[in-house]
Amino acid sequence: LHARYVLNLLHETRKHLKQLPNISHVSTCYSEEITVCGDLHGQLDDLFLIFYKNGLPSPSKSYVFNGDFVDRGKQSLEILILLFTFLLIYPKEVHLNRGNHEDHMVNLRYGFTKEVMQKYKVHGKKILRMFQNVF
What we know:
mainly alpha, Serine/threonine-protein phosphatase, 3 strands
């Protein structure tokens, strides 16, 4: 995805998240399902498998993602792009909780910083700063 669109997505995501309370309250009833996921760690195939088995986020399919989206795997950036896009499209059905890997120092050590800089050589620093701001 072109850097301009990534930055736009990050800007809109940040704007949306700033409006939310610090703690998310998600309730469900017996007739509704909610899928809770955690620790994707840059494994895009795992996210695809979750969506294949449970369906894509939609007004009838809610998800809670419990952090650790990035680091270790090679496709953290793609995971965040997908999750942030679904969050903006379905703000009442997609909930994102920050994990310990959504932290600048952890990203330096476990690979997300390097991934962003390799994929976006020219605008990598700006994109990385914006990701940290969103986190």
